[in-house]
Amino acid sequence: MNIQAPGHPNPGLDRSYGPFIGGEFLDAGERTFPAVNPATGRHLADIARCGPREIDLAVKAARGAFKSWSTTGYEHRSTLLLKLADALEADLPRLAMIDALDIGRRVSETEVDYRIAIGQYRYFAAAILNFEDFGKPIPNGYSIARRQAIGVCGIIIPWNAPSIMAALKLAPALAAGNTVVLKPDENASLSTLELCKHIANIFPPGVVNVVPGLGEEAGGALTAHPDVAKLAFTGSSEVGRIISAAAAARLVPVTLELGGKSPNIVFPDVQDLDAVVDNAAFAGTYCNGQSCLAGTRLFVHDHIYNAFMDKLVAGLSSLNIGSPIDATTKLSCLVSKTQGERVLDYIDIGGKEGANLVTGGHRQTIAGNEHGYFIQPTVFEANNSMRIAQEEIFGPVLSVIRWNDYETMLEEANGVRYGLASGIYTADLAKALKTAERLEVGAVWINQYFNILNGAPLGGWKDSGFGSEYCRETLNLYTHLKSVTMAYDLPQQWYLK
Known about the structure:
Elements: E1 16-17, E2 20-21, E3 24-25, E4 32-36, E5 43-48, H1 52-70, H2 74-90, H3 92-103, H4 107-127, E6 134-138, E7 141-149, E8 152-156, H5 162-175, E9 179-183, H6 190-202, E10 208-210, H7 215-224, E11 230-234, H8 237-250, E12 254-257, E13 263-266, H9 273-285, E14 297-301, H10 305-317, H11 337-353, E15 356-359, E16 363-364, E17 374-375, E18 378-381, H12 387-390, E19 397-403, H13 406-413, E20 418-419, E21 421-425, H14 429-438, E22 443-446, E23 461-462, E24 465-466, H15 473-477, E25 479-487
Helix pairs in contact: 1-7, 2-4, 2-6, 3-4, 3-6, 4-5, 9-10
């Protein structure tokens, strides 16, 4: 595998970042944690380690801004979201480089992230303009159902794709008229804090507040705050249960996008095996495998199994592993030592379970990036009951499962606690759609994995959470439905007679 050496770009980071509250950055104070380049170990900036005090200040700022912001017209909110999209587009190369340095993903991927994020701001800027109330006439008047903003939204996002994760929640929340307190992940706070510089120039103070910190401190304070009216979280199913319990304790609505162990199914009738292998390899290793959507359970039909595996192993073995900031890199480093060791532990578990390691399975050293956990793309021949096929690894590890009986394959494809995404490769449209109907997942991609489109719902079933993002329906999750019934005339007196 090719090895690339890094340079040392300067994307104009500040030395330290405090919380963004009420339209301005506060001082970081003495309690900070470092942002460290996971590939090189280089110190990037100091970030405030916020807690209940800063969360309370942010929620008060958001509450103070809510009345005015929630009564602004749809057109005005739309205009500001479009301005934010334009600002991010103009700043895209710099912000994408910040994410590459901060989380270790290759810059060519983080650039795509920003295009997806920008698309979300523009999509909800348009969607809010036709987010109409509805009603019907009644014999003595009219009945109206209207949607109104909920209030202060507490949002917690993960580290794997911070630009997308922020957009998926900020765009619909703001379009619907809510104000926001957002906590970024401690492993990926920089680009979200840099986003605040654009927000400060566009949105009124207090509409968006960003409070960095550790999950148990800042995150715990945010989910428990009595003035937060809605919670939205993306992350692990285990933490999702904690967030859900906090929402239940206060009876506030919650949206959860959680883990996944997605099946990716290859039928024997595929026309272009090379193209299918290429897309399936991408499905399992994009984002260095650190995606809840990744197609990491690969079901390959017996009739094409040997040819498919030969091509898959040859392709992944030659994949260019290198520095996150090298444009030619196809696979870069994991976000942290903790995550790297977790993935290596799972690879060890796979071997102990009796899975056949076909390729990869080791940490690779990249010149100039010796600090990083660069894990070779790893392929196991496995069965569906193994832990490596049941549990979310969050690394470039594929479990390939050989199949020849359709009903058995489908039972195994659904035979995990997750239900987020899936893939199907076939030339038979009827077969594709019938299989899609029976898969217990929120998204099915036929003949192109990761085919994510603005307006196409994306949400989880089972332990993958609930609530759909990316689509017009998302606006319903950030609004209350209110019924207003009007009578033309007072009723005839009858009760006190």
